[in-house]
């Protein structure tokens, strides 16, 4: 194990959860920031490298430990964009998502699940990616050092020495979204299952999958009930105990049904049918939250609604007639 002092270990705004395990939080929470989880062992691994502009936690991690492996829980930018901080680390991601990191074009195509991307949205995302790069003084996507990302499968084991990290494939939020469990520290990392947030599950890209997300949340609940768990870590919020985590996960799951019922109630109230846009205009997901440009949250709202519409149709609760949606007779 690499030598370190506890003072060094927690000097970069981290929390030591177990000897050799540190939760690293961004000091300033902004769009694209995320928690990182550091395992220091014969092989050192860091989970996720959220874009931490105007902060230096990741650079301090690099100087102190220079992680051997950078594990991406999934491909979203708030988990990968700070990866250029670790140019020498071996980067790994679930095999489903590897190609999405190759170029910005493939990234956005993967998000849209191969569907046609409106020109306005494509132009926006291309400019947004370049703006993110500029903040970090990077010229282009190649400067992220994502040209040689390795892959893993769900349920693989990562042998660090003392720590034997178990990969848990938890798709739905994204196709290759994964968690980790360490039997030694009994720490469970669940990525973007943001159970201590009041927003609930996020499935705002076309390649998100609502039925699969539901199954993944139940997978985590079953895992917690059958394993020794000391802490549950998510990507953007505080760590919680096993007992609190089970309560919050069940609340987290309930948002699926609450949203589904709200959408069904709205459709049922309009006997002549309503359009998808009209449902999305009710802001049942984002509760009136606005963005600049406005189409960003409007698009995410619409996609969440679309996922529930598919679910309601599959359950024969509603039907579509042209562009109108109404309750099934």
- Silhouette: globular
Strand order of the largest sheet: 1-2-3-4-5-6-7
Q: What is the number of helices?
A: 9
Compute the number of structural domains: 2
CATH-assigned homologous superfamily of the largest domain? Ribonuclease Z/Hydroxyacylglutathione hydrolase-like
Q: What's the arrangement of secondary structure elements?
A:
Blueprint (H helix, E strand, L loop, with lengths): L5 H4 L4 E5 L2 E4 L11 E4 L5 E3 L9 H9 L3 E3 L5 H4 L9 E5 L9 H8 L7 H17 L14 E3 L4 E3 L4 E6 L8 E5 L4 E3 L20 H17 L4 E3 L8 H28 L6 H5 L14 H20 L3 E4 L2 E4 L2
Parallel strand pairs: 4-5, 5-6, 6-7, 11-12
Antiparallel strand pairs: 1-2, 2-3, 3-4, 8-9, 9-10, 10-11, 13-14
Helix pairs in contact: 6-7, 7-9
Structure description:
This protein is α/β, with parallel strands linked by helices and 329 residues long. It is built from nine helices and 14 strands. The strands form three sheets. It has a seven-stranded mixed β-sheet, with no helix packed on it. The chain has a five-stranded mixed β-sheet with strand order 8-9-10-11-12, with no helix packed on it. Strands 13-14 form a two-stranded antiparallel sheet. It is globular and about 70 Å long. The termini are far apart.
């Amino acid at each position: 194990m690499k030598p370190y002092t506890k003072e060094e270990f927690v000097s970069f705004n981290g929390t030591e959860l177990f000897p050799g395990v540190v939760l690293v939080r961004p000091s300033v929470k902004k769009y694209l920031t995320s928690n990182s989880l550091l395992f220091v062992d014969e092989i050192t691994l860091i989970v996720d490298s959220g874009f931490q502009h105007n902060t230096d936690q990741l650079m301090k991690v690099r100087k102190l430990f220079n992680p051997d492996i950078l594990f991406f829980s999934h491909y979203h930018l708030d988990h990968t964009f700070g990866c250029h901080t670790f140019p020498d680390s071996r980067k790994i991601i679930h095999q489903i998502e590897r190609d999405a990191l190759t170029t910005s074009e493939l990234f956005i195509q993967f998000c849209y699940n191969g569907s046609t991307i409106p020109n306005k949205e494509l132009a926006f995302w291309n400019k947004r990616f370049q703006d993110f790069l500029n903040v970090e003084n990077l010229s282009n996507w190649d400067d992220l050092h994502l040209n040689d990302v390795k892959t893993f499968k769900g349920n693989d084991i990562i042998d660090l020495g003392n720590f034997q990290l178990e990969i848990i494939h938890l798709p739905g939020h994204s196709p290759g979204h994964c968690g980790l469990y360490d039997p030694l520290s009994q720490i469970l990392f669940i990525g973007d299952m943001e159970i201590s947030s009041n927003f609930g599950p996020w499935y705002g890209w076309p390649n998100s999958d609502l039925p699969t997300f539901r199954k993944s949340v139940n997978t985590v609940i079953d895992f917690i009930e059958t394993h020794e768990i000391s802490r549950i870590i998510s990507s953007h919020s505080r760590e919680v105990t096993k007992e609190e985590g089970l309560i919050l996960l069940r609340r987290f799951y309930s948002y699926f049904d609450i949203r589904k019922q709200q959408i069904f109630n709205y459709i049922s109230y309009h006997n002549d049918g309503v359009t998808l846009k009209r449902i999305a205009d009710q802001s049942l997901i984002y509760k009136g939250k606005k963005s600049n440009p406005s189409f960003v949250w409007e698009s995410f709202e619409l996609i969440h609604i679309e996922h529930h519409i598919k679910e309601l149709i599959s359950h024969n609760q509603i039907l579509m007639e042209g562009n109108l949606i109404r309750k099934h007779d």
